Structure formats: C-alpha cells, structure tokens
Amino acid sequence: MNLQAEKLEVVRMILDTDDKNIIRDVKSLFNRRKEIKKDTNLEEFYEGFRDGVREVKSSLDGKVKLKDAKTWLDELQD
C-alpha cells in the first residue's frame, strides 16, 4: 500500500470513530513524535505507527481490545 493510500485509510478510521480515547491516543502519538530523538530511525517510527493503526482497526472490527494510551505509547517508544 502506498503512502497516500495509508494516509487516507488513517483519516477514514479517525473520521469513522466516535471513541474519544482513540482520538486522544492518535493526538498523543503525534505530539509524542515531536519528542522522539532525532537519531531514531524514521522508518521504525512509521512502522510503529502503522502497527498502532492496524490495532485500532482491529479494535473497531471487534477483533481485539485496545490497550490504554500509556501502555500503547510506551510500546511505541521501545
């Protein structure tokens, strides 16, 4: 999937949800991105973001239960 298609998928998922926790988590992720050290591999960050989006999608589909925001962000940081 190309970058533009992935962006559109993320936007669609955000617009389709009424879960304030998901919106807060996504906002936190972007805010947290500003804090990521410059030496962090950008591809690693995006892969973590993609994994998070897939997890949100699975939650919306009822396949998994989302973790709380702190646990989720801690995993992205590792």
The Cα radius of gyration reads 12 Å
Total beta strands = 0
Mean pLDDT across every amino acid position = 81
Uncertain runs with pLDDT below 50, 5 residues or more?
none
- How many individual helices? 4
**Structural domain tally:** 1
Q: What is the first-to-last residue Cα distance?
A: 25 Å
Helix/strand-derived class?
A: mainly alpha
Question: What is the helix content?
Answer: over 70%
What attributes does this structure have?
single chain; 78 residues; 0% strand; mainly alpha; 4 helices
SSE layout:
Layout: H1 3-16, H2 20-33, H3 42-60, H4 69-77
Structural account:
It contains four helices and no strands. The mean pLDDT is 81. The longest helix has 19 residues. With 78 residues, it is an all-alpha fold. It has one domain.
Question: Can you describe this structure in just a few lines?
Answer:
The chain is mainly alpha-helical. It is built from four helices and no strands.
